[in-house]
Write a structure and sequence with these properties.
Helix content is 38%, strand content 16%. It is elongated. The chain has 21 helices and 18 strands. The protein has 502 residues and is of the alpha/beta class.
Length: 502
């Protein structure tokens, strides 16, 4: 008879709850049973473990083998428990010592030959093992993820034999090497955008304060070109933010590139994407596009062409910065703190307001087209900017991304000294850092009354004005900052005009 307890971790969203793998050998007919709410891939572990042990020339216990995965009410999925089950069987049968196994955690899928295969979602387990001060054994194929957390004790193995030799004190496992340095790839340059001074200014303000942005204009005026340049003027992510983004990519099965892991992502889903593809979900909750854009930019081109139901699911994540997906057996939470950049045409044909007079859309058609985007969603977008058609003659070349980024970094440094970027200021932070004198307050109240803006839009104008003041290196919000911020509610003004004409 023998009993061994091995520590491992499950995967629930980007969390990695601890799972105790208890292996008991008792007299009886030879059989192998796994209990503790295992799914199909976990139940099949018994066959992989037995074949791997036999082909690795370990002794197979001829007793009754019972494996319990605790807590029993937590669903277990995937082949990540192969290695802890195999180590538990070896320890229970006396083939490896069980003296200090309490200091170790194990994760890995076994092939029938005993070699270890990579597991998906290893990074959350690495972070939790570091918090607990334990050593974690992973397949060598997960080396890149292991290297992202430099101060964690992560050891890599090629096979079950290597793990057993290390536990027996014969040959220690190599420790994962931390990722050295950070390489920032040169992306598209903002200097490629000629003219469009107002849109470029709005892009700089959005980058400086982390604000959401809507670009509206005829086809071919540079809306997508502008949006694709936004990551190039954003600062790199700090380690905490980058690890969260990398953990989401790990859970989603995306390949990580260690040299550029702190670079902000640019996600651009097609307008045919479903709500589940955008927000995440499924019977086994997986992150969607908004979580994969965490810390970066989510670009929605042709915004009115998205299903209205799909767009409405963005409202809560834009406010809370997270997504909670609930299913019958499990609830998963994913971070979703992203910058939303959307682009749209002003009307169905795309040329409403164009000096050429090419638009033949009726006011009713234009109203129906714009009503595909709900008022509450527009309310959550700080900057509404028109990108008009320009003459192609003598367009001046704009500043490069490098020059604009310098100003963005200076403004971000001021905001970080306050505690966070301006777009995330709460009511208390707005009162403290966005205080207005009597004239400025009257100006803002009059604008909100005329444009019929909500209290949320009022706060967002204040946040944008605070960012404009930061770019000007001004301690106070002045009237010109308020005026410019109000000017970026373009779509609110147009909706008000339509309401009066109706």
């Amino acid at each position: 008879m023998g009993l061994a307890t091995i520590q491992s971790r499950a995967a629930v969203g980007i969390e990695a709850p601890e799972v105790l793998c208890e292996v008991n050998l008792s007299p009886g007919l030879p059989m192998f049973a796994i209990v503790g709410l295992p799914e199909t891939a976990v139940r099949e572990s018994k066959d992989r473990v037995r074949a791997a042990m036999k082909n690795s020339e370990f002794d197979l216990p001829s007793w009754r083998t019972t494996v319990s995965l605790a807590p029993a009410d937590l669903p277990k999925e995937g082949a990540r428990f192969d290695l802890p089950i195999a180590v538990g069987v070896l320890a229970a049968s006396g083939q490896v010592p069980d003296d200090d196994l309490g200091d170790w955690e194990f994760l890995g899928e076994l092939s029938l030959t005993g070699r270890l295969r990579a597991v998906k979602g290893a990074l959350p387990a690495i972070l939790r093992a570091r918090e607990q001060g334990r050593k974690l054994v992973l397949p060598r194929a997960n080396a890149e993820e292991a290297g992202l957390v430099g101060d964690a004790e992560i050891y890599l193995a090629e096979s079950l034999c290597e793990v057993a030799e290390a536990l027996n004190g014969h040959q220690p496992l190599p420790r994962a090497e931390p990722v050295s340095g950070f390489e920032e790839l040169a992306g598209p340059d903002l200097a490629d955008v000629l003219g469009q001074h107002r849109a470029r200014r709005a892009l700089e303000i959005a980058a400086a304060g982390g604000h959401n942005l809507l670009l509206m204009g005829p086809p071919g005026t540079g809306k997508t070109l502008l949006a694709s340049r936004l990551p190039g003027i954003l600062p790199p992510m700090d380690e905490t933010e980058a690890l969260e983004a990398a953990a989401i990519a790990s859970v989603a099965g995306k390949e990580l590139e260690p040299p550029t892991w702190r670079q902000r992502k640019f996600r651009s889903p097609h307008h045919t994407a479903s709500g589940v593809a955008l927000v995440g979900g499924g019977s086994k909750p997986r992150p969607g596009e908004i979580s994969l854009a965490h810390g970066g930019v989510l670009f929605l081109d042709e915004l009115p062409e998205f299903s209205r139901h799909v767009l409405e699911v963005l409202r809560e994540p834009l406010e809370s910065g997270r997504v909670v997906i609930s299913r019958a057996a499990v609830q998963a939470e994913f971070p979703a703190r992203f910058m939303l950049v959307a682009a749209m045409n002003p009307c169905p044909c795309g040329y409403e307001g164009d000096p050429s007079g090419r638009c033949a859309c009726t006011p009713d058609q234009i109203r129906r087209y714009r009503d595909r985007i709900s008022g509450p969603l527009l309310d959550r977008i700080d900057l509404h900017v028109e990108v008009p058609r320009q003459s192609l003659k003598d367009l001046p070349e704009g500043e490069s991304s490098g020059k604009v980024r310098e100003r963005v970094l200076e403004a971000r440094a001021v905001q970080q000294a306050r505690g966070d970027v301006n777009s995330r200021l709460d009511v208390r932070g707005i009162r403290k850092h966005c205080a207005l004198d009597g004239h400025q307050a009257t100006l803002l109240e009059a604008a909100c009354e005329k444009l019929r803006l909500s209290a949320r839009a009022h706060h967002r104008i204040l946040r944008v004005a605070r960012t404009i003041a930061d770019l000007d290196a001004s301690d106070r919000i002045e009237a010109r900052h308020i005026t410019e911020a109000i000017g970026y509610r373009q779509l609110d003004r147009r909706r008000d005009d339509f309401a009066r004409s109706a």
